[in-house]
Amino acid sequence: MNSPLKPAENQALQQQQWIGASVPRPNGRRLVEGAAIYIDDIQLPRMANIFFLRSPYASARITKIDYHAALSSKGVIAIYTGEDIQRLVAPMVATLAHFVGMKAMPQPCLAVDQVFWQGEPVLAIVADSRRHAEDAALHVTVDYQELPVVVDMETALDPATHVIHPQLGDNLCFTRKVDTENYDQIAAQADLVLERTFRFPRHTGVCLEGRSVIGDFSSGDQKLTIYISHQAPHMIQDCYARLLGLSESAVRVICKDIGGSYGIKTHVYGDELATCAISMDLKRPVKFIADRAESFLSDIHSRDHRVKMRMAFQRDGTLLGIDLEDLLAIGPYSVYPRTSVVEGNQIVNITGQWYSHKAYRATMFNVFTNMGIYSNYRAVGHPVAVGVTEGMIDAAARELKIDPIALRRKNLLKDGAFPCTTPSGAKFESMTHHLCLDQIMQMMDLSKLRQEQSELRKKGIYRGIGIISMIEITNPSALFYGIGGARISAQDGCTVRMDPAGGIVVANGTGEQGQGTETIFAQIAADGIGVHLSNVKVVTGDTDSTPYGGGTWASRGAGVGGEATWQAARALRQNILTLAGVVLERSAQILDIRQDQVVDLNTNEILISLAELGRIAYFRPDTLGSYQAELCVTRHFVPKAFPFTFTNGALACHLEVDVETGFIKLLKFWAVEDCGTILNQQLVDEQMRGGLVQGIGPTLYEQCLYDERGQMLNGNMADYLVPMAFEMPDIEIGHVHNPTKTTELGAKGAGEAGTAGAPGAIMNALNDALQPFAVEMFDMPFTPDKVLRSLGKI
Amino acid sequence: MPTIPIRFKLNGQQVEAVVEPRLHVIDFLREEYELSSPRVGCEHGVCGACTIRVDGQIVRGCLMLGVQLDGAEVQTLEGLNASSEIADLQKAFHERNSMQCGYCTAGMLLTSQDYLQKNESCSRTGLREHLSGNYCRCTGYEAIIDAVMNVASQRGKKIIQQEEV
Q1: Residues 81-120 (B) with a CB less than 8 A from some CB of A
Q2: CATH code at A472?
C-alpha cells in the first residue's frame, strides 16, 4: 500500500498542469534523428512507380498519343491514357450548393482529348522504378493542336475572349455579392471616399515533401490501403471510395509523417486518385511522388487577386462604408471537393468587418483561366481581406492626416461590444483588438522607432513602420462545407482509453503535419484525466483506428479536435473514478486522479494507482461483482454556437527600403494574437512565426509567373523565391488571453494568423517608408524593380 | 545501362557497390542503403534537404553522382546519430521546436554543425547566412537560429551580438 504523500509533494501534485506548458513534442525526437517516415520512405513488395507525362501546353487538343514503343522500354509495366483512367474512376465535379450559381466542369484525373493547363497529366507510365518510367516517356509521342489561351483575368469575361469550357457559356465560375444596399447613399454624405487598387500574386505552397501517395489494393481482401501525404484522411477515404466505386469500409487511409502541407494537401488531385485506380487495376501497390518541377505545375495555386477597394470616411476619421470588387483568377477547373471559390467567398464575408461601419458592398468574380489549378491555401482569403482593409486604413490616415493607430482605435470594434453581427453578416463571439494594439505598441516601443525613423531620413535612410489589426476564421462549424453538400466533417471524434498498466491511448480523427497537434492532444488528455504526459500515447492519421474527424483545415485542430479530446478524457476520468469507487468501496465523489494515482479529493492520500485499477478491470473483473468497467470512451465535438470562432490580433513590421536598389530589408516583426486558451505556448508561437514567414513570401518574393501562352516561367526553386533564413527577421510574439466560451477548453485556432496578417503589415510599413517620396505601393510582390519604378528611378 | 564499381566508407563502414553512372548520390543512398534521413526536396541543388557529408564537407546529394563517392568517406544523419556527434544540437532542436514537419531537419542539422565547426565566433546573422541554402517552409527559421546559437554558447563559442543594420 502506498503511503500518503508528504505535504510539499501534495502541493506539487495540485499544481500539475500540462495544458499551457511549453513541453517539447514527444514525436519530435524521431524528426531530429531523421527517422520520420514520409511516403517515399515506404517500400512495399511488388510496388510499381508512376511517372505522369504532363501537358507542355496550357490549352490544346490532343490529336495523337503513341506510346507503343514505350511499352517495351525497360521495366515498364503498363501505360494508361486519360480515357483508360476514365474507365476506372469517375471524374470530379467540384460545386457546392451554398455557392449559389457556381459552375464547373467535371475534371478527369488525366486529360481526355483536350488539355486545359500546362502540367495537366496526360499519360501515366507505370514501371518498376520512377527512373524507368521516365526513360520510357522518351519513347512516347503526343501531338497537340494549340488552342487559344486565357491567362488575363481582366479580359477573361470579355465576349471576345476564348471560352475555356463552351458548355459553361462563359469563363465565370462564381460571382457573389454581399450588399447592405446603402453604400452609395452613405458615400454621398462622406467627407472622403478613398479608392485604391490592390494586387495579390498567384503563388503556391512549396511543401518540401511533394504530394505523395501509394495505392495498395489487395485483391484478396478487395480493400484499398492508401498511404498519402495529406491533411484530411477521412475526407480522402470518403472521396476515393465514392470515385473509385468502393465501399467506405473497403478504403483505409494512412497518413504518417507529412513533409509540409499548408492547405496544399487538403485536396483531391487527379494524379493521386489515378495512382490508386491503377493500383486497383494492376492489383499491386503503386507509388507516385510529385517531383519539384511537377509540384510547381500541378499543386494548387492560390490568391491571384485584383481588388478595387473604396472606403468612405467622415473628416474626423469615422469609417462609414466599405465597397470592394474582387476579381480573381482560378484555374480551368474547380478543385475537388472544396471547390476553388472559398478564397473569394471568405473575402466578401470578412473584409473590414472588424471595423464598425454602416454600409458594406462586396462583389467578387471568380474567373476560369488556363493557369494552374487553384484552391485553398493557408489563411484562405485572409491575406487579401486583411491586406486591403489595413492598406486602406493607413492610406486614409495619410489622407486625413490622422495617426494610423488613432484611426484604428476610433473605428475598431470595441473590446466589450460582443457578441455582434457585422454588416456582412459575420458573427463574432468576442474580440480584443484594443488590448492587442496596447500590447504590441508596448512591445515595439513605437515612439522610439518613430524618432529613429525621422533621424535616419535626414541621412537618406528610409525606414517604415506598419501596424495592422486583423481577424482569422478558426473552429469552423458545418456551415463551412457540410451545408453545401460537401462530405467534409466539421466534427472531430476522439477515443481515449486506459490500458491495463494505466497507460492512456488517445486516438483522434485529426492529425499532425508538424504543428504539434499530437502533443497538445496528449497535454489535454494528461490534464483531463490526471496523468503524466509521458503516460499518454497519441494515435492519428489512420482511418481504421481513429474516430471520424475532419483533419486539418481552417485552424481547427486545437479548438475542435482538442475539445473532443478534452471531452473524452473527462468522461474516461469519471469512469476510472467510478471503477475506483467500486474497488475501494468509497463514493467516487470524494476521489480524484492526480499523477496517475487515485487520491482522496480532500487529503490527497494516495488510494490506488491507475495501473492497479487497470489490472483489476482487465484481469480480475470477477472481483467487481456485477459492475462492468468501461475504460474506453469516445466523444465527438462540433462547434454549434457560432458558425466560426474568429480570433484576432495585431501585427507590426519594421523595414528599410534601399531607394537606390529597391531592396526591402525586414528589420523586425511583432505579433500579438488572441487564440484563447493557450495549450502550448511554444507551439503557438512557432505557428505564428512560421505562418508569418509564409505571409512574407508572397508579399516580397513569391509569384507564379505566366506568359501569354500560359507557360509558367519560374517553376523551379531557383527562380521561384521563397523566404530563406538570411532575409527573415526575428519575430517577437505576445498573447492576449480571451478564451472562447463555445468550448470547455476555450482554445481558438492559431495556425493561419501570421499568414493572414503579414502582407498588410509589410505593405503599410513600405508605404510609411516611402512617405517622403509621396508614393504608395499596393501591387504585391513588392520586388525591387517595382519599388524603383514607383520611385521613378527606372 | 553500364555500371561502375565503387568502394567508399559509409557512416564508418567500408562498402562496395555497383552504380549506374547517372544515379545521383541522394537516390543511391536512399535506395541502395535505405538511408532515409537525407530527403529529396528539389533535385536541383537549391533546398538543402538532401545535405550529407562527404570527406568532411557538406554537399547536396542531388548535385553529385553516386560514382563520385568512390574512395570517399560519407556520413549521413544516421551516422551522426550513432556517433552522438551532434546529440547536443539535436536536443536543442527538439527542445526549441526547431522542426515542424521535419523534412528539412537532417539538412539543417548537418549545415548547422558545419557552421559550428567552421566558426569560433558565432552570430545570428552569420548563422542565417550559412543556413540560407537550406529551405524550411514551416518554422520561419527563428527557432532553428535560437537552437544553434544556444549550442554555440554551450560549446564555448564566442557569441557576437548582432550589429545594427
Answers
A1: 81, 90-91, 93-97, 99-106, 109
A2: 3.30.365.10
The closest CB to that of A24, out of B38, B95, B165, belongs to: B95
CB-count burial class (<10 Å; 0-12, 13-18, 19+) for A441: middle
Q: Pick from A57, A160, A66: which is nearest to A114 by CA? A: A57
In tens, the pLDDT along A612-665 reads 999 999 999 999 999 999 999 999 999 999 999 999 999 999 999 999 999 999
How far is A257 from A443, CA to CA, in rounded Å?
36
Cα R_g (chain A), whole angstroms: 28
Domain that holds residue A767: 301-478+641-790
How high is the ipTM of this complex?
0.97
Q: How many residues does chain A have?
A: 794
Could you tell me if A330 and A451 lie in one domain? yes
Question: Regarding the domain with residue range B4-81, which homologous superfamily does it belong to in the CATH classification?
Answer: Beta-grasp domain (3.10.20.30)
- Close Cβ partners of B16 (under 8 Å, ≥ 6 residues apart): B5, B6, B7
A38 contacts chain B (CB < 8 A): yes
Surface of A (704-763) touching B: CB under 8 A: 716-718, 722-728, 730-731, 754
For residue A3, pLDDT over 50 is answered with no
Say how far apart CA A579 and CA A566 lie, in whole Å: 20
Rounded percentage of chain A residues whose pLDDT exceeds 90: 98
A338: nearest Cα among A232, A208, A492: A232
- Shared domain for A631 and A684, answered yes or no, is no
pTM score: 0.97
Using CB atoms, pick whichever of A24, A208, A731 lies closest to residue B140: A731
